[in-house]
């Protein structure tokens, strides 16, 4: 990926843990590396195919000047988010914020915080088998779209499937969506749980009936195993009600552990079911 660099942008602002810092202010020095594809801009000499570094510089200045925070970490997060949301061609931003002569009672040149933030692609399974199933699924899609750190890219058709897991209950309506997000996997999980709770989801019976079920299937090519979140989803390759809608929107997405595409996993599963 190509890079556009903004080096040592000086901004006077009011950030710090001490009241006098928030009142008097001081100089901050920011540098940003914008990850973007400059190929078309280079071939056409058209600015519209690139990222206007002057506009980005003024956006950084606006965010840093017009807010007051205690921590450099907060300044960095807010600035990176503003850049990524404002410039779709930027896939990642590396940001460094330096604070010269920080008041720590010792001689130093600067303290600094450096972060890298960027867009990720996640695939989410949707399911419902209580009440107005289609309404619950459509509302979940809309709520993810309304989440400031998320953009819904594709949504599959919804299909009716038999319940999974041996619990007697109504048929499910299932689907899948592709999501562009700035959220970490854990933050995304928390957001999905919030949406489920807003649909009055109750976790009473394992594999039992539910108004709304939202699961992270894949997150980039991440392999993650924690007590509350496993990515890729541990049973996605065994569930046709997951693979059928996922194959509709991402047939060539490859499972980072099995090495198979979604289409290949679906074909293998259907072959086993027919044998």
Protein architecture, described:
This protein is α+β, with helices and mostly antiparallel strands. The protein has two domains: 2-118, GTP Cyclohydrolase I, domain 2, CATH 3.30.1130; 120-274, 7,8-Dihydro-6-hydroxymethylpterin-pyrophosphokinase HPPK (Alpha-Beta Plaits, 2-Layer Sandwich). Helices cover 33% and strands 29% of the residues. The protein is built from eight helices and eleven strands. The chain has helices at 19-24, 39-44, 53-65, 72-86, 133-146, 185-198, 240-249, 262-274, and strands at residues 2-13, 26-36, 92-100, 110-118, 120-128, 150-155, 159-161, 172-181, 213-219, 224-225, 230-231. The strands form three sheets. Strands 5, 6, 7, 8 and 9 form a five-stranded antiparallel sheet that branches. The longest helix has 15 residues, at 72-86. The mean pLDDT is 93. Belongs to the DHNA family.
Brief characterization of the structure:
One of its GO terms (molecular function) is kinase activity. This protein is of the alpha+beta class and 275 residues long.
Query: How can the largest sheet be summarized?
Result: 5 strands, antiparallel
Give the number of DSSP strands.
11
Q: Output the structural class.
A: alpha+beta
- Kindly state the percentage of residues in helix: 25-40%
Low-confidence stretches: none
Query: Beta-strand percentage?
Result: 25-35%
Dominant shape: elongated
Q: Radius of gyration over alpha carbons?
A: 23 Å
CATH class of the largest domain reads: Alpha Beta
- Oligomer classification: single chain
CA distance, first residue to last residue: 46 Å
> What name is given to the CATH topology of the largest domain?
Alpha-Beta Plaits
What's the order of the H and E elements? EHEHHHEEEHEEEHEEEHH
Number of helices: 8
CATH superfamily of the largest domain: 7,8-Dihydro-6-hydroxymethylpterin-pyrophosphokinase HPPK
- Domain unit count: 2
- Mean pLDDT score: 93
What is the architecture of the largest domain at the second tier of CATH?
A: 2-Layer Sandwich
């Amino acid at each position: 990926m190509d890079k556009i660099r903004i080096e040592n942008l000086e901004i006077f602002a009011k950030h710090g843990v001490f009241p006098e810092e928030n009142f008097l202010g001081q100089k901050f020095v920011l540098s940003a590396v914008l990850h973007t594809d400059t190929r078309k801009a280079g071939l056409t000499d058209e600015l519209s195919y690139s990222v206007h570094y002057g506009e980005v510089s003024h956006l950084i200045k606006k965010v840093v000047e017009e807010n007051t925070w205690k921590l450099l970490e907060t300044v960095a997060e807010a600035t990176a988010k503003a850049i990524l949301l404002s410039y779709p061609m930027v896939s990642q931003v590396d940001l460094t914020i330096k604070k010269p002569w920080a008041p720590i009672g010792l001689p130093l040149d600067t303290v600094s915080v450096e972060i890298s933030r960027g867009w990720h692609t996640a695939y989410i399974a949707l399911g419902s088998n209580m009440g107005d199933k289609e309404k619950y699924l459509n509302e979940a899609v809309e709520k993810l779209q309304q989440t400031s750190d998320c953009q819904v890219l594709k949504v599959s058709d919804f299909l009716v499937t038999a319940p999974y897991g041996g619990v007697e209950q109504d048929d499910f309506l299932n689907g899948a969506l592709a999501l562009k997000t700035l959220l970490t996997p854990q933050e995304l999980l928390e957001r999905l749980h919030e949406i489920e709770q807003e649909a009055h989801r109750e976790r009473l019976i394992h594999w039992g009936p539910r108004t709304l079920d939202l699961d992270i299937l894949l997150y980039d090519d991440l392999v993650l195993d924690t007590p509350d979140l496993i990515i890729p989803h541990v049973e996605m390759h065994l569930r046709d009600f997951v693979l059928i809608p996922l194959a509709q929107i991402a047939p060539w997405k490859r499972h980072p552990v099995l090495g198979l595409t979604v289409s290949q996993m679906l074909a293998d599963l259907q072959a086993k079911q027919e044998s």
